[in-house]
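sry for the spam today, last one i promise. struct tokens for design, 139 residues
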């Protein structure tokens, strides 16, 4: 159970917010061309820097935590490098991903839930590592 009065709670929530921002960028990457992914990858740099800053400020040079952030960043870079001609930001209905052939997922009741689930799997290892290193599975 998460203790809201614990001193680790505010930085843990901050890490979670940055991780959510990175996940949003990754989802968008699954919908766009290889060139457009590079611009999104550039936007992610600030979020990774913030995660590292929060970590060092609160937990010091925690190798497991910093390694988890590094893995997530590496995974996002791998996603960005996948050759894609996708252009599904506005028109995805009935389309298949040009990278993997999967159907584009759209959970219309939720914002930010349009993406290719199979391509998003590329960042699962990094996301899981961050979740475990920071205890994000508790929130």
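last one done:
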């Amino acid at each position: 159970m998460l203790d809201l009065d614990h001193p680790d709670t505010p930085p843990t929530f901050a890490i979670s917010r940055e991780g959510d921002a990175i996940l949003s960028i990754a989802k968008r990457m699954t919908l766009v061309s290889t060139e457009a992914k590079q611009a999104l990858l550039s936007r992610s740099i600030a979020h990774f820097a913030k995660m590292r800053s929060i970590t060092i400020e609160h937990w010091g040079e925690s190798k497991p935590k910093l390694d988890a952030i590094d893995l997530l960043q590496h995974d996002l870079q791998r996603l960005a490098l996948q050759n894609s001609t996708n252009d599904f930001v506005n028109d995805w209905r009935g389309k298949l991903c040009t990278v993997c052939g999967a159907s584009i997922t759209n959970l219309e009741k939720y914002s930010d839930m349009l993406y290719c689930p199979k391509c998003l799997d590329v960042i699962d290892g990094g996301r899981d590592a961050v979740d475990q290193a920071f205890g994000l599975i508790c929130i």
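The first helix runs from residue 9 to 29. ok im logging off now
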